[in-house]
Specification:
- With about 475 residues, the protein is mainly alpha-helical.
- The chain is about 60% helix and about 10% strand.
- It contains nine helices and 14 strands.
């Protein structure tokens, strides 16, 4: 009798176990399109045996707990590669904005002798074409030094070039402002994500301290938040020993100093701040307290690197070009007793015509004969003049080669960044596919498990029915 009751208990346990298996398979199938979800498994085990007068008797089967299927190595690789991908995305965005700001692209098949392939976008004239127009007008004035129409045309071309410099400088300033706003917004996003991770850490610790199994849904959400965080900054997450699944997040500080802990006492975090201070010593960067972080990966790191590095160099290069044009043209035209460009406008933002220069005051000669053209010829010759910093000039080479080199460098930098971005995107996509192959839900596998647990449940139910019939025989027929 005792053995029959024991078998009934074991069969009842089996019903519970297989019902949990069916429930888990159903939960997996319900989350087949949930990108944060990692498939779950029922952990089934033998609780052991007890001694009876007839020998040892098994205790049946029981649910030991639940687990979700994850590859920790792949998860860590995804975080690392996502940080690199985030930086490249930010750099590609910034370089694209810069090239659009110039309205100029590099085309090696172009036929412009002046810019050697730096062409305007969508038919709009860029600095290259406007410089060509200006020097062509100097040649035209030299051919007709007394022509009022040529003088008016020259002033229009010079004014258009100055306006284009002003506009380009403003566009670059806009790129800088947009990157600053992007950094500030993403810093706030980082703090929001850290707050979510801290909250999930609390929930995981609370759940797993009260239950033997893992808080799988919370762990899935936390992994998703870590992957989101990795798009913005580079960090390292580690499981805190004896903490019931809670993690800490560390980031490197600048200069190789020890890592700064971003999650304290497992459930709180130090907020990240962005400081934008160019005064010496420069303090621009991400900070935790007084410690500047090594923001060399993630979209924030990419935006800071471009804004404070490459973009600054581009702005300086375009300022040098504008200043060299002003200095060179005024150096020639000053022989007439006045300036062509305003002498105070020595950068791209400030370049403009001298207010006293009109079609009536513009002259092609420094002499009394209005038919002479030595000034106009000298100004036209600036197009092919080779400048040298060793000779006191502001740049090396011709004006055209300087601008061509700038546009070419932007184009090549954008192209190489796009290529690196494509490679990194492929790497990240492969890792996500590998993660999905391990943790993702396969409907075929779940259907197989569902049928397996269903059949096992039916078999256990049949065993219960058989034992019930045996008990009926013992109780109702033999004991009378």
């Amino acid at each position: 009798m005792a053995t029959i009751i024991g078998n009934l208990q074991n069969a009842t346990k089996a019903l519970t176990v297989h019902r949990q298996g069916v429930t888990t398979a159903g939960r997996n199938m319900a989350n087949v399109n949930n990108p944060e979800y990692a498939r779950q498994r029922v952990l089934i085990g033998d609780p052991g045996a007890i001694m009876t007068p007839h020998g040892p008797m098994g205790m049946g089967v029981q649910v030991l707990g639940f687990s979700h299927v994850r590859d920790a190595l792949v998860d860590r690789e995804i975080l690392r590669e996502a940080s690199a991908l985030g930086r490249l995305n930010a750099e590609h965005y910034a370089y694209t904005r810069m090239q659009a700001g110039f309205g100029q692209t590099v085309d090696r098949q172009g036929d412009s002798a002046f810019v050697d392939g730096a062409g305007a976008v969508q038919g709009l004239k860029g600095i290259a074409e406007l410089m060509t127009d200006l020097f062509a007008s100097f040649h035209s004035l030299a051919a007709n030094p007394a022509s009022l129409a040529e003088k008016q045309s020259l002033l229009q071309k010079a004014s258009a070039l100055a306006d284009k410099f002003n506009f380009t400088d403003q566009r670059l300033q806009d790129v800088r402002a947009d990157l600053t706003a992007k950094i500030e917004s993403e810093t706030a996003t980082v703090n929001g994500i850290l707050g979510e991770i801290a909250r999930l850490n609390r929930e995981i610790g609370r759940f797993e301290s009260e239950n033997a199994s893992q808080a799988m849904e919370f762990r899935d959400k936390r992994q998703a938040k870590l992957e989101e965080l990795s798009q913005y900054i580079d960090f390292r997450s580690t499981i805190i020993p004896e903490s019931r699944g809670q993690i800490r997040i560390d980031v490197r500080t600048a200069g190789g100093s020890p890592a700064e802990v971003m999650l304290l006492d497992k459930t709180t975090f130090n907020a990240v701040t962005f400081t934008d201070n160019d005064s010496p010593p420069p303090q621009t960067g991400l900070y935790i307290g007084a410690n500047r972080l090594a923001a060399d990966k993630g979209s924030i790191g990419g935006s800071i690197a471009v804004r404070d590095g490459y973009l600054g160099g581009v702005q300086q290069s375009i300022d040098v070009l504008a200043r060299q044009i002003v200095v060179a043209v005024n150096g020639v035209y000053s022989a007439t007793g006045q300036d062509f460009f305003h002498p105070a406008g020595l950068d791209a933002a400030g370049i403009r015509l001298d207010p006293g220069l009109t079609a009536q005051t513009l002259t092609a000669t420094a002499g009394p004969n209005p038919g002479q053209n030595e000034i106009a010829l000298a100004l036209a010759g600036l197009e092919s003049r080779t400048f040298s910093t060793s000779g006191g000039d502001l740049l090396n080479g011709t004006l055209g080669s300087h601008y061509r080199g700038l546009i070419s460098d932007i184009g090549h930098t954008l192209s190489s960044t796009r290529s690196a971005l494509d490679d990194q995107s492929n790497m990240h996509r492969l890792l996500k596919a590998q993660q999905d192959s391990v943790s993702g839900v396969s409907l075929d596998e779940e259907m197989t498990d569902l049928i397996k647990f269903q059949r096992a449940f039916e078999a256990s139910a049949r065993l219960v029915r058989i034992i019930d019939e045996m008990l009926d025989v013992l109780v109702n027929r033999m004991i009378r």
